[in-house]
Task: structure prediction
Amino acid sequence: MPGPQEPTGQALSRETLAVVAGRPDRTPDAPLNQPLVQASVFHAGGDIEYGRHGNPTWSAFETAIGALEGGHGLVFPSGLAAVGAIVSLVPADAVVVVPRHAYLGTLGQLGVAAGRTGLTLRQVDVADTDQVVAACDGADLVLIESPTNPALEVADLPAVCAAGRAAGALVAVDNTFATPFGQNPLALGADVVMHSATKFLAGHSDAVLGAVVCTDEDLRDRMKEHRRLSGTAAGVLETWLALRGMRTLHLRLERAAANAAVLAPRLAAHPACKRVRYPGLPDDPGRARAAAQMRTFGAILSVEFADGPTAEAFCAATKLWVNATSLGAVESTLERRRRWAGESPSIPEGLVRLSTGVEEAEDLWADLDQALNSLG
Ligand SMILES: *Cc1c(COP(=O)(O)O)cnc(C)c1O
Result:
């Protein structure tokens, strides 16, 4: 039996694929798990030869993320290296449509390119479909995030992907927040999907990694060649850790999203919170869209306080929640986003982004409640 079989001939569910995809062949004494192949050089005459070209542990991770997103996966050393691979597909003076509230590192990388190579950035409100569609005219690349980091705006992905492709642009979607269990942008019309695997895929705050997935083999080959020549070779240990993390992604996300669903309305009802952004709240502007295109409302929410100092005091007052950047891990984390100089000035000073982990909901609430009540 070479690999995991479909017992009844029907396609395996995504949850099952998370467990079985990218495993070694089922031959006697073969390991059940893909081993960590810590090697820079391979015997000549094969497909790999050198550690910047490939690695068996990379291939296992790529098979797994490819199975979850429905395409060919490629691993990169970080989410931003994956963004770089996507940008390498368009000319240096390309016109690029991006969310005004995209991840700050993505905007930073594109901003540097705009200064150096004449790349043009068109920043849009992803929730305003007419605005995004208009910006697609003459664009080379449409790089959308949904939900956005940290504003939690939801784009109409089928409409935006169709408009980008109709305009002749390459359409890429950063699926870091939703994860492959939340939505599959390739099925919604995107050409490329990317992940900061640092976040939910790896999920344990111990590895920095990125990935892209696409269905077109030519795009895959071009990004693979970019990886080889730009030297953006992923660490083998990080790749192995992310693959291990992905085996439980659906379970972690289920609990983390259930926690977010419990906490969001309680936060919204607290007088210290001016506004809670979470697509799962009944009155959230992204609710209907998220319900139409996502399988879960996810595990990230943002809370707005009156001002920056109040938000900082709140973050400092938590005892269980960790005041730290990043998201998508087993432990709940929170941070005031405007503490970063690169964060968009249209993100409120008092906005705190929360990433719910897999702890028990009442423990998480008790900590938030005492931190809220400590605010003057
Ligand atoms: C963190 C993040 C990135 C960047 O990923 P790194 O792994 O930190 O390079 C890109 N997009 C989103 C939405 C992120 O949250």
Q: What stands out?
A: Residues 304 and 348 are 7 Å apart (CA to CA). The longest helix spans residues 249-269. The two ends are 65 Å apart (CA to CA).
